[in-house]
Description:
- With 115 residues, the protein is mainly β.
- The protein is built from no helices and 10 strands.
- Strand 7 (68-73) and strand 8 form a beta hairpin.
- It starts with a strand and ends with a strand.
Amino acid sequence: QVQLVESGGGLVQPGGSLRLSCTASGFTFSRSPMSWVRQAPGKGLEWVSSINSGGGSTYYTNSVNGRFTISRDNAKNTLYLQMNSLKLEDTAVYYCAKDPKGAYRGQGTQVTVSS
């Protein structure tokens, strides 16, 4: 069955960086577009970024464009999200997902941006 396992979250100060990873199994990762979505406290799921199967096309929500970078290593079945210049409003549980709406997502990793 589809399994997505995120890691790399933590507590970071504003302006700091984190790199999230997501290891996938149970499907043909190299043929699947992938996404990151997040859920801030008290809010719904928000699409953050997507990447096509080959990694050559990437997409970002406006609030993270220029600060976050999505990438993938198909040989390792792994999706990444490099997050730089983190802001308080980036605090959320981050999920990797097979679809931009997050219907098929992992268990998530907590990112807390706080001074």
